Amino acid sequence: MLAVLAVCALIVLTSLLRGEPWMLMGLTAISLAVAAVPEALPAGRSPPSARTRPTR
């Protein structure tokens, strides 16, 4: 997760140095961070409601 934030910060800083609008770069950084969150989360167990009961 920390690597994602570092990449977002790097993109924003380089874009601002190039003269891109700061609002556009802020929204881009937020979008990248939100899109990367599911990729950074570990795969966990399914919730109890998703499990099926064994039939008897």
What's the short version?
The protein has 56 residues and is mostly helical. Helix content is 64%, strand content 0%.
**Quick one: biggest sheet?**
none
Mean pLDDT: 77
Ranges with pLDDT <50 over ≥5 residues? none
The computed structural class is mainly alpha
Gyration radius (Cα, Å) is: 19 Å
Topology, number of strands: 0
Overall geometric form: elongated
Total of DSSP H or I helical runs spanning 4+ residues:
2
| Amount of helix | 55-70%
Instruction: Give the terminus-to-terminus CA distance.
Output: 44 Å
The portion of residues forming beta strands comes to: under 5%
Order of helices and strands: HH
Describe the structure.
- The chain has 56 residues and is an all-alpha fold.
- It has a domain at 1-34.
- It is built from two helices and no strands.
- The longest helix has 19 residues, at 22-40.
- It is elongated.
